[in-house]
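agent> Task received from the user: take the single chain below, predict its 3D structure, and emit structure tokens. No templates, no multimer pairing.
agent> Plan: (1) validate residues, (2) run structure prediction, (3) serialize to tokens, (4) report one or two observations.
agent> Step 1 OK, no nonstandard residues flagged.
tool_call: predict_structure(input=
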Amino acid sequence: MDERERRSDRRRSVRAASIILGDGTPDIPCVVLDRSAGGVRLHVHDPALVPDNFRLLILEDNSEHACAVIWRTGNEIGVQFQA
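)
tool_result: status=success, residues=83
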């Protein structure tokens, strides 16, 4: 997805977060690098541990979002919020 396809502007937002797997596995810590109305870009130490669908807890405002991975590059993943 390039900039022309994005539906809303991204805002830089460095925030601590956790990927919740919900299967008894410990949460995966991550950092929100930027955020838009439709999703976030995350930095994850080991992106191979992140499934294609998960719940994301943004610690600053205690908000939880259902997410789907859209892209993966190095230690970063782009996710879209699901309804």
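agent> Step 4: summary for the user.
The longest strand covers residues 63-73.
agent> Done.
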